[in-house]
Amino acid sequence: MMRKLKPITVNVEALISANKYNVDESNKHIELAAEDLSTLPAEEFGKLVRVCPAALYKERDDGSRSFDYAGCLECGTCRIACEGTILKKWESPQPGMGVMYRFG
Ligand code: SF4
Description:
- By secondary structure, this protein is an alpha+beta fold.
- The chain has helices at about 10-15, 40-50, 75-80; strands spanning about 20, 30, 55-60, 65, 85-90, 100.
- The chain has one domain.
- A hairpin with a 5-residue loop joins strand 3 (about 55-60) and strand 4 (about 65).
- The relative contact order is 0.27.
- Iron/sulfur cluster binds next to helix 3.
């Protein structure tokens, strides 16, 4: 008989909100293949929506999409998922820029 696992709930937003971000507005460290996100393939954009732990890639019920690199955790997951398809650029932010973790 299989044991039923209890779901684990983690409040990621509370943990993420403790971080500090120094956003480099003169140099986006992540860029997508098109400015108009509606032109990007749904399957590829859907991957980004699902994998980003900071939920920076959004697709709303009306089909509109958005992406904001400002809250990036620099984990590189979107790069692994979509580099070579709809991710045009992914690089580490310049020194002193980007996320500053509050938990280690
Ligand atoms: S590097 Fe990580 S946190 Fe940043 S946009 Fe990609 S998946 Fe999201």
